Amino acid sequence: MASPGWAVALMLFQLFHSGTSYPVFTSTPSLPPEFALPFPNVSLVASPITPGESTQSVLCPLKISPSTVVVRFGDPVKANCSIQRMGYFGIGWEVPLNRPNFTSQGFLIWSVEKMTDWTIKPVCFALSEQGGQCYSKLTLIVYKPPDRVSITFLNHSESPFEGDRYTLQCHVTEVAPAENVLVTFYSGEKMLAQMHSNTSSEKKPVTQSFTLNIVSSKEDTEAQYWCEAKLELGPEGPQHLPVMASQRLFAPQLSCPVKLKVTEGERFPCEVTGNPQPSVTWFRNGQIVAPPSHLNKKDAGNYTIQAKGLFSKNFTVEVKILPARGTANSCCGHFLLLVLLTQMITHV
């Protein structure tokens, strides 16, 4: 039961309080829980928030602006609570574990310079001259973008057959709130699927994995797989939050044509790329060889490249060596000089 002293104290506060309201930071010691209902014989009435509430709830004339606040963890936040109906001698803000703030003015701003509480639920209340109170809750969403997004393959084969099943896993690290996370899977630029988190009640940052089952096809060995995660915070939240994407997974790829013409002395331009980085083995005439760094005539021929990465792939490259440009010019120059000397000797 609450003591009548609290009602008296609030009325005295009204008499001696002057000036306009000001931003407050609720960081003072907490009051006894009886303060939440200073008039024990009167029911607490909620301000209208959602459709379907009782007729009694519309009796609370409080207005919070904005009604929903979306704030990034560590950023400042504020909201204004006001009342326009006569018959109420004051309004205040109450935050768990902190002393309620009260004013006899028609509005009161609650503000925090740095939001570091994930589960805070501010409540604005009004005290009636007839001995009662009503309240309205501020909808506050504290968010944090993910630290990292990554993608991996589970239970897949390096040599998939058409119709095989395997699993993509998108890993989202330290994001909040979980219920607002949307993950999208892609194959190249084609969207494969979208899914939301199944952790709807957790407000603090969480790390979650999202999985998608895939049936392999002939095109899989050429596709790039990746995922992205973003927060959907509604019209009240920031509309251009950056979307965090994973790296792209792709099978081994050859960086040169399968029929290659290279001038003698030039660098060998063939490389194998992939993610994860593939292990590569070169063969020539059935023997393991090291890929040549700078080519000469003896390096001409057919090479077989065996690459093991996201999937296993084999490549065959036919290498043809062209004579160096300087060599052809030198031969022509020597021939012309010989012709000139022959003519000079003939005319002597």
TrEMBL record:
Any matching Pfam family: I-set
Classification via PROSITE patterns: IG_LIKE (PS50835)
SMART domains for this protein: IG
Family matches, as SUPFAM superfamilies: Immunoglobulin (SSF48726)
MF annotations from Gene Ontology: integrin binding
Signal peptide: 1-21
Residue ranges of coiled coil: none
Keywords (A to Z) from UniProt: Signal
Protein name: Ig-like domain-containing protein
Taxonomic source organism: Astatotilapia calliptera (Eastern happy)
